[in-house]
């Protein structure tokens, strides 16, 4: 998956300047960040995993569309029942990916509660069908996901993830996690404006440095917080493996070198390294949690730009971005 166009409204009301901050919990066994949200009338709490590769909010479990579709296996409960009478919708469908399988769902509207703040008429998806494999169903342990939908029509999202904490802010950034607590330390580069929400944001790496020496490799990557490593094409990873010998590595993004923390030193082989092969080519790199957890990330769809900053809570052990 990759970061998609985040053009949908998180709440359909007048824009405000108040941040919505989610303090996330991390499940080490599932390797997921999550946050509790209350759905429906009467409300039911679901602990939804965060997916920075999507702009959709969708839920399953007791909110399945069964018996209208097959995504919920044999569970008979569904969102449209007498106890959830405030739910409205016209069965407009959407498509997304679940475990690399295409998922078809419908948009519905109801009240949800986040941080004790009610949101009325918010749109979220209910899965109906999964295409591509008749044997794939969504298990009960998966409650859905929170994507990066804009909040109050403010299309700025700030992301700070690690295995002992996590924070996502909708409607702005959180200076607490930015080195120097200064917004000017965020470096931006343009992103293409996407008109199709199924398209993917791709970000340029203009060079890679090993021990501060350029090795003249460039490529294009997308984020995916469902994988742990940084995945490059096999040719690039072979060049890096031959030159690294346990050294540090930096990626040049927006004319700035971003060095991975010392704890993520390159290993001498694929099993030790947080950087692996497997991407199809230089236009299909995937930057997983090894990169995402190392920096503060900003998606500013209003200005079509991607931002990155060193984190205040990380000891990089080397010279910072330059």
Automatic annotation (TrEMBL):
Record GO biological process: proteolysis
Record domain Peptidase A1: where: 36-158, 243-310
InterPro entries: Aspartic_peptidase_A1 (IPR001461), Pepsin-like_dom (IPR034164), PEPTIDASE_A1 (IPR033121), Peptidase_aspartic_dom_sf (IPR021109)
Coiled coil: none
Pfam families in alphabetical order: Asp
GO molecular function, a single term: aspartic-type endopeptidase activity
Bilayer-spanning residue ranges: none
Family named by the database record: Belongs to the peptidase A1 family.
Stored PANTHER family: BETA-SITE APP-CLEAVING ENZYME, ISOFORM A-RELATED
Protein name as annotated: Aspartic peptidase domain-containing protein
UniProt organism field: Gigaspora rosea
Lineage summary: Eukaryota, Fungi, Fungi incertae sedis, Mucoromycota, Glomeromycotina
